[in-house]
Amino acid sequence: MGCGNCGTGKSGKPAGCKSNGTCGTSGCNRMNVFDWLSALPLSDSSKPYHVIEVSFNKGSRKEFYRNNTHHLFEKGQMITVEGVGGFDVGMVNLTGELVKLQMKKYSVKEDPQMKRILRLASEDELANYYKQKDRENEVMILSRAIAKQLNLDMKICEVEIQADGKKGTFFYTADGRVDFRELIKVYATEFKLKVEMKQIGARQESGKVGGIGSCGRELCCSTWLTDFKSVNTNAARYQNLSINQTKLSGQCGRLKCCLNYELDTYMDALKVFPLHADVLRTTQGDAYLLKKDIFKNLMWYGFKGSSKQYPMAIDQVKEILKENKEGRKPEELQPVEIEVNEAKLVAKTEASFVNDVGQISLKTLEKNSKKRNVANRSKSEQGNLDNKPNKSNHNRQNQSTKTTAQQGNEPTQQSQRPKQNQGKNSGKKPLKKNEENPPK
Q: Is 212 strand, coil or helix?
């Protein structure tokens, strides 16, 4: 069960990594549990604990098997166990006393009908096992096409084939109930398998696919998280997070499981705040609660139609609530003064992160581009102003040639301009440019 980087050796163990498939990564064996009790001596060396936890399909499925053989199996060994109508091959995940804690955690009781461990996996069994694993991807693609032809509202997420090739488990997701009786018949005849259908949720699907979360680490559902609890938007409200679906939802399309990690701490911190403090009645009007600052123990209030916010201490809010119960109303709210230490701000700006490439950001580049655009505009405008007088002189010359060619015709625009100013010229008739002075 080696990952792609390690490769697989002859015995079925990863050839590259020295952990032999127990490094805990998603490639080798995801959802792995480190056996902290492996170095402890057993209470009775002749009678070790007879139940072993075995993982299948890269650790996505784990089951408990009874060890009736006289072999002492070690973690990471490939063993052959009982399957449905045949045998299956898995990896030893946990042995010893830690298996008792795992069985108690998952509420698994010792049953005489529990499946047994047969032997260590032989080379032929391992070869058949890897052959079936290579076949799973092809079967999954074809099964999706068959489900689409039957117009079934479902999605095949993963296919797991038993090591002997007699049984196949099809994991699917669907919004509602699906009638797949006809689908099972088609699968059985097409793949020559005993078909088992298992419905999983969107969180389990993302755990099987895997990926990197917004925190930069591998998804919790694909590494260690096995119990999926319901997540509500109230968890985000208690933590004063903005209700933004794109930021709060994970790759599965549901709310992130990590919203529940710190919820208990926030709930304990909220016990200090008074209950039923949504409205404070004053002579100015009713002040409504906007938010609670758990880190500073402040409650922010505001009036309707006003954008001003009033930070109030918890003791002040309790006093106002006590006065409101007695039928009294304070004249106004007395907010707490929040002081900002300027020295700390200066120190933070001085110790800010410096880029290796240089202190160049997108904002500085935008500013430089704007300055260049303004400079180019000013140059173009100045060039247009310089060119305008030349055009006017050229027009005047053209107009003068037109007047000489059209003697006796109507005057041009330039000859008409002096006529409008006849009052100013004391009745004297202006002369045209190209006319000579009349004889005396």
A: strand
List phi, psi (to 5°) of 205: -65, -45
* Class at the top of the CATH hierarchy for domain 129-206: alpha beta
pLDDT at 350: 55
Domain(s) of CATH 2.30.30: residues in the chain = 272-325
Please, what is the average pLDDT of the chain? 78
Residue 194 CA to residue 187 CA, distance in Å, equals 9
Rounded CA separation 299/292 (Å):
5
Higher-pLDDT residue of 438, 161: 161
Name residue 347's amino acid: A
What tokens does 147 get? Answer: 């489900």
Query: 272-325 domain in CATH 2.60.40?
Result: no
Q: What totals of helices (H) and strands (E) does the chain contain, helices first?
A: 12, 12
Angle CA 11–12–14, to nearest 5? 110
Put simply, whether the predicted model's pTM sits higher than 0.85 gets the answer: no
Closest listed residue to residue 321, CA positions, set 286, 270, 297, 295: 286
Average pLDDT over residues 370-380: 78
* Strand pairing category for 167-173 and 298-303: unpaired
Question: Which residues are registered as beta bridge partners of 311?
Answer: 300
Q: Is residue 288 within 8 Å of 278, Cβ to Cβ?
A: yes
- pLDDT higher at 46 or 160: 160
Q: What percent of the chain has pLDDT over 70?
A: 69
Segment 191-220 mean pLDDT: 89
| DSSP code, position 221 | G
Question: Which distant-in-sequence residues (6+ apart) come within 8 Å of 5 by Cβ?
Answer: 16, 17, 27
Helix axes 123-149, 181-191, angle to 10 degrees: 140
424, two tokens? 């100013």
pLDDT, position 12: 52
- Could you write out the DSSP letters of every residue in 291-347? EEETTTTEEEEEETT---EEEEEHHHHHHHHHHHHTT---SS--PPP----HHHHHH
Residue ranges matching CATH 3.30.300 in the chain: 129-206
3-state DSSP call for residue 129? helix
Residues 6+ apart with CB under 8 A from 171: 156, 157, 158, 159, 160, 198, 199, 200, 204, 205, 208
